[in-house]
Amino acid sequence: MLIMLNGVNFPIQGPFQEPLLIMEEIVIFFALEIGIIFWIKSKNKKEEISNLQEKAFSWFCLGYSLMCVIFIISDYYVEDSHIRLILLNFAYFVQMISGLLFIYNMETFQIFFKKYLFTFIFIVFMILFVICFFIESVFTKTFSFFFSWIIYLLFFFHYMIKVSTSKKLKKVLKNFKWHLFELFSGFIFLNIGYALTTDFILNLFGLVGRLIGAVFQIIGLILLSLYFLSISSITEYFWKEKIDSIYIIMQSGLCLYTKHFRETRKSFDEIVASGALSSVQIILESITDKKDISIIEKEGKTMIFQPGKYIIGVLVCEEDLESIRITLKKFVQKIEKIYFNILKTWDGNLNIFKPIEDIINEVFI
Amino acid sequence: MTVELRTFYLPFIFISFFIGYQMSFYFLYDYYRHRERKIELNKILLYYGIFFGLSITGCLFDIINDFYITNLFIKDIFARMVYLLVLIASVLILYHISSKVYKEIINPTLTKILIFMNIFPFISIFIFNPATTEFLFAIIFISIDFLFFLIFQLNLIRLSSGNIKKRLKIIFLGALIIISAIIIGFIPVSDLETQIQNPIIAIPFITTLSLGLIILLLGALRFPVFLNFFWKQNLISLFIINRKTLKKLYSYNFTSYTEDMDNSIKSLININESIKLISHGMIGIIEIFTAVAETKDKKIQKIKQGGFSILLEYGEEPISNIFFILLVKGEMDSNKYFLTAIKNQFQLMYKHVIPILEFLDGSSTERIFSSFDTIMKNILKMN
Fold first, then answer.
1. Segment A170-186, tens digit of pLDDT
2. Looking at the structure, do residues B171 and B296 belong to the same domain, yes or no?
């Protein structure tokens, strides 16, 4: 039985079938390719902050690609309207899972309003979607389109505001306005492109609209990929203002270096502080019998301990973010790499550690 | 419902073209990225890009001709264009490999003869009708060009090392799979429209072709800088000197890479052990040259002596008083690239330490910079 939709028949046939299939399969391949490339990039950069954003975008692309595959099967090869509806719902669900993974990874990297707020909203929405599917599956299409894309929209615009208002990003990112344009236009192109493939819009514009939609999706994916490629090198600027102070302590408890990033902070005896901090790490290590990163959280303040072979890096900050942990680990590794032979037999000369000030300024400010 | 084979076949073909154009773009982009380094062998990326771009365009013309053009006159023009594009692609790549830099890989005279012989297929493309048997002459020639290029690729793999070798192997594997696709698809049925009627030929053809192109694309993605063959064998020693104090910060002896060198180099290494001579001597040469040639704003990059070269690099702020000296045998662009890589890594690691050197004693300084050994070993792994 053919499904008729104001002039558009399902499965799609006729002169538009071939160009549409070609363009839509190119969209599938391209999204899959970008997803794999970003996935490999994030895997290769396990120890770097940018891998979270790359992983997020990779999930988004892989899900998008799979969703388009299901769309093609349902729109071009399925005659039964009920099976088509089930397949479409499955496609929306796939899109939601990838969207959830995207937002979760982005929120692991950075906090938007409240920790994992969007992830929570998305999970609630997915549960509602499943309930809706079992109660009245006809509404899931509208439900999915409006709600999931509204969440995406809210998330993207909030993210865009964060990026565009960041003074530090403006300062360090070359062609800042162009990258903002990539993000904004990429998202708009992808949204319009996707909207043009939906049944609702097909009613208005027909298959020509769907063809244009496929082209828009490719443009959107290219622009978003360019944005995520460029942003990966400067990701640390998103969280720098959240750091309070840093301590570099010898395993023995001697303080090698301290820096306070906030002027308002009350002065505290650094020698006492470093001794205390080192003993905290020793206690935690003896309890867990493991020499690994330790995090102590209090409302609004977090203390991260990163032990190295000879030193311990302690960071006091506002939030416990994966990106901050990775940076601290890299910082400790860098100090140990440079001073490896000095730390082995350190004679107490603190002058030798003066360059740490510049390294901190480079990494954390 | 019945599903037409064409609805699978054509989208897959177009995806293959999409992959092919991407690959061509990646090669051209990588060439553009490394262009400023002026490494002769890197030009191969440019020619790979052009080769794949033109070949894919030729195939695209063939598809358009077979499936969408009905006018006989335009069909004839398109058929000739297909062969012309592929022939231009193969001649261009042959032209590149006829360069002297590949003389260890393939005989340049033989390559030049082959390029010259390509005049005949060029003429036949314009004279004969693509449907006639005489036209086969052009096809045979194109096949010989491709075979020659494959032999070149094999030799290139044999002589390369590291990441480049890995990438070239992937590209070669991709090329072999594409050749298999062509054999599967075109030996039994030369016409694409007939091929599409036969799923036993069309499906294996299109899947093999896509697979081959995907493998080629994997090889092309972020292709590394193509350094000269045997560049490591030219390395003698490296010195990093503080211009202010005339003291050595770091030195490295590459003897393990130069085992086959003659006595003259060995004696040079002995001289090199006198750091004082190197540091004072270099500063002296730089000062004299600057004064005589009145080139205060320009810096000496290279000094040639007999069969040896002394390559120089200078630190940037805040370590502008540091300079890097690399002694090499002969003259290769790749050695300059290697020295720049060392400079960049050294700057990255020690730019904050250098300004406080005056407060440190000799033994502390030595201990700090001895950590650079690990970085050096990593840099030496490239290519």
1. 766 677 788 888 889 99
2. no
Look at residue B258 and tell me if it is in a domain: yes
Q: Is B355 on the interface with A (CB under 8 A)?
A: yes
Answer yes or no: is B1 within a domain: no
**Are B323 and B296 members of one domain?**
yes
Q: Across all residues in chain A, what is the average pLDDT?
A: 81
> Do B358 and B236 share a domain, yes or no?
yes
d(Cα B347, Cα B317) in Å, to the nearest integer? Answer: 9
DSSP strands (E only) in chain A = 3-5, 8-10, 243-250, 255-260, 294-298, 301-307, 311-317
Contact yes or no for A35/A54 (Cβ under 8 A): no
Q: Which domain, by its residues, includes B252?
A: 231-380
Would you say how long chain A is, in residues? 365
Quick check: A80 contacting B, CB < 8 Å? no
Domain A3-238 is in which class?
A: mainly alpha
Do B201 and B313 lie in one domain? The reply is: no
CB of B263 less than 8 A from some CB of A: no
ipTM of the complex: 0.70
Domain end call among B220, B250, B269: B220
B274-311 pLDDT, tens digit per residue, is 566 666 777 777 767 666 665 566 677 777 766 778 88
pLDDT of B27-44, one tens digit each? Answer: 999 888 887 766 777 888
Report whether pLDDT(B269) > 60. no
| Residue keyed to tokens 């393990």 | B256
In this complex, is the C-beta atom of B295 within 8 Å of any C-beta atom belonging to chain A?
no
Is A341–B370 a contact, with Cβ atoms under 8 angstroms apart? Answer: yes
Nearest-Cα distance to chain B for A270, in Å, is: 23
Beta bridge partners of B325: B239, B312
| B185 and B275 together in one domain | no
Asked if A37 lies within 8 A of B355 by C-beta distance, the reply is no
CATH number where B299 lies: 3.30.450.70
Among B43, B157, B162, residue whose Cα is nearest residue B97: B43
Tell me whether residues B367 and A342 touch, CB distance under 8 A: yes
Express as a percent the part of chain A with pLDDT over 70: 84
